[in-house]
Design a protein that fits this description.
Elements: H1 3-7, H2 20-24, H3 38-42, H4 54-63, H5 75-86, H6 93-176, H7 200-205, H8 210-222, E1 225-230, H9 244-260, E2 271-276, E3 282-286, H10 289-296, H11 298-308, E4 312-315, E5 319-327, H12 335-345, E6 352-357, E7 370-377, H13 380-389, E8 391-393, E9 396-398, E10 400-402, E11 453-454, E12 459-460, H14 470-481, H15 540-543, H16 578-588, H17 600-608
Antiparallel strand pairs: 1-3, 1-4, 2-3, 5-7, 5-10, 6-7, 8-9, 11-12
Helix pairs in contact: 5-6, 9-11
Length: 616
């Protein structure tokens, strides 16, 4: 055994690391334990050194040209010294890299220490002001809460005062704008509320005119009604033989079946009464407007009718308007167009029941660009909105007015308000509505207005269908005088704004009706113009023919308005009407005494007037 082997009992490792990578993969160990002193680290290493104090360390560095400040070495100086030492050529690669690594770590530690020192100093400087600022913020928050509560209380008080002022103003306005020709009774009940009348009794207490009070009461009753009728006149009327008690029981049974099927009815919904109408419909009255509105909802309506009977429909109450000067591009038969009108006009869905042109399209002038439209709505509120604000149709703002009731006319005998229609007219022959002869109006060949003859007022110059007919005007005024609602611009509701009367309409029912003065004639000293060839009606009320016995309900055709398309001029030689032949003979051989007059037509009529009784 070699001597060296005997002195070293521990055998060397099988293979020592020969490369730098192999050396780096050896197990790492701590170079310095903070709990031990430098002397303790050096003890046991076999290394003898005199550098164990700060002075010896400075001396060693100075000897090698590395001077550290006497006031105390900073970390930056030590980092620089270590980097400089790592560049010493005598050191191996391992020691050089280790020294540089230590220098980098010390640099990071130094930056961390500087940052912490800065934070500590800033905290010391700002600690007091920040605390003071926090206190002030808390104080401001407390003040803000206090002021917010005060502002909220003040706003509530101002809002309450404003509401009271508005109510007082409404009361003053309501009492100031009463019709001047109606005496307002004294309010003896001490009720000075500002709301509008909600019932007949409330309206009476408010001093509303008696006719309007009755109208509002009737409107309130109508809001509780529903009309049930046959789906068509050809369907069998299964309700005509039932009594009112049975009809009410039938409706109550339908509601009960709906409830048992799971449909939730409005609270305390009940049917009060049933009234049988002449045409076969049944007018039901419910206990509350909300109940009638609930049944009018499409889903509830269908459910109710399924339990009520077959071939039965619920008809909506209609409110008719006349829209003036509507662009002819408007299609009244298009549901999409009607829905667009509802959307732009702010109306509810399906508020518009139907729309139609007053004059048939075939009778339009080729250059006509607008036409009048009859609009039917199911809501009184929507109708009043259109009357007041108008509505946009085809990009144009149009305005409407109530379509007032007018006299109905039999298309066979041409009589107004006769109580029958052409299908059951008692007259044997037809009376022409244009010339008054005994033939149908559609087959009349007269297109000269001077040859028109009215079968109602027995006057030449206009036809029976003319809206300028004195009898038509008188009948219309008489009918409107009996209809209180026709006196108002709007459909009256509880809103006082809808109580405006139509200009020129009186609201005094005690005023006697007087027919219009339409028999005035213009008299000239040289020529006498005669517009009537028959004896005029001197007293309309006395000479009105006795009414015929009613045989049915009048149904007006929707398109029978006095707008006739131009017809070809009749041939007097082939015309069958005696009136046309007579007029032809007169025109072909005028009297010799007037052939030289400046106005041949006027002179001809003046000459013919000599044989007519009742004319001067």
């Amino acid at each position: 055994m070699a001597p060296n082997e005997a002195m070293n009992p521990t055998p060397p490792p099988a293979s020592a690391p020969t490369t730098r990578g192999a050396r780096l993969r050896t197990t790492a160990k701590a170079l310095f334990v903070p709990s031990k002193s430098i002397e303790e680290h050096l003890a046991g290493t076999g290394i003898r050194t005199d550098i164990v104090t700060l002075a010896s360390a400075r001396k060693q560095l100075s000897t090698n040209g590395m001077t550290i400040s006497t006031a105390g070495g900073t970390v930056k100086h030590l980092i620089g010294a270590i980097f400089e030492l790592s560049l010493t050529p005598a050191l191996g690669a391992t020691h050089s890299e280790s020294l540089r690594a230590i220098a980098i770590i010390l640099n990071e530690v130094e930056q961390t220490i500087d940052t912490n020192n800065i934070i500590d100093k800033l905290s010391a400087l700002l600690g007091g002001p920040v605390a003071t600022l926090d206190e002030k913020v808390d104080t401001l928050a407390t003040l803000a809460d206090t002021h917010a509560a005060a502002l909220e209380e003040a706003a509530t008080k101002v809002s309450k005062q404003l509401e009271e002022s508005i109510l007082g103003l409404g009361e003053v306005v309501g009492s100031s704008f009463q019709p001047t020709n109606i005496h307002k009774p004294q309010n003896t009940h001490g009720n000075s509320g500002s709301d509008g009348p909600r019932s007949y009794a409330a309206a009476a207490k408010k001093g509303v005119p008696a006719p309007l009070t009755k109208l509002l009461s009737r409107s309130e009753a109508q809001s509780r009604q529903i009309l049930i009728d046959r789906r068509s006149f050809q369907a069998t009327n299964e309700l005509k033989d039932l009594t009112e008690v049975q009809l009410v029981a039938k409706a109550e049974l339908a509601l009960e079946l709906m409830s048992k099927a799971g449909t939730k009815l409005p609270e305390n919904t009940s049917v009060l009464s049933a009234r049988k109408l002449p045409h076969g419909g049944i007018l039901y009255e419910l206990n509350a407007p909300g109940s009638a509105e609930w049944i009018s909802i499409p889903a509830n309506r269908s459910n109710f009718l399924n339990h009520f009977g077959t071939d039965i429909v619920i008809k909506d109450r209609a409110f008719h308007l006349l829209l003036e000067n509507v662009p002819i591009s408007f299609d009244p038969n298009s549901q999409i167009t009607l829905a667009e009108v509802e959307r732009k006009g702010g109306l509810s869905q399906d508020d518009i029941v139907k729309a139609r042109y007053i004059k048939p399209i075939t009778r339009r002038n080729p250059r006509q660009r607008t036409a009048h439209v009859a609009l039917t709505l199911k809501s009184k509120t929507s109708a009043n909105q259109i009357i007041r604000f108008g509505i946009s149709i085809e990009g144009k703002k149009v305005y409407g007015r109530k379509l007032l009731p007018e006299p109905s006319r039999c298309l066979k005998c041409q009589a107004f308000d006769s109580g029958h229609i052409a299908a059951n007219c008692p007259q044997e022959h037809d009376t022409c509505g244009t010339c008054g002869a005994d033939h149908r109006t559609a087959s009349c060949a007269v297109d000269i207005q001077d040859l028109y003859h009215c079968a109602n007022c027995e006057t030449d110059g206009h036809a029976s269908w003319s809206r300028d007919c004195p009898v038509f005007i008188a009948k219309g005024q008489r009918r409107r005088s009996k209809n209180e609602e026709a006196r108002y611009k709007y459909f009256p509701t509880e809103d006082p704004l809808t109580w405006d009367t139509i200009e020129g309409e009186s609201s005094n029912h005690d005023t006697d009706f007087s027919p219009p003065q339409y028999l005035h004639q213009e008299i000239n000293t040289e020529w006498k113009t005669v517009h009537h060839r028959r004896h005029p009606i001197q007293n309309y009320d006395q000479q009105e023919p006795a009414p015929r016995p009613p045989t049915g309900t009048q149904t007006r055709l929707t398109d029978r308005w006095p707008n006739h398309q131009t017809r070809t001029h009749p041939n007097p030689q082939t015309a069958t009407s005696p009136r046309i032949q007579q007029a032809s003979q007169r025109w072909s051989s005028p009297p010799s005494s007037i052939t030289s007059t400046p106005d041949y037509h006027t002179a001809m009529l003046s000459d013919s007037n000599e044989n007519l009784p009742g004319w001067n």
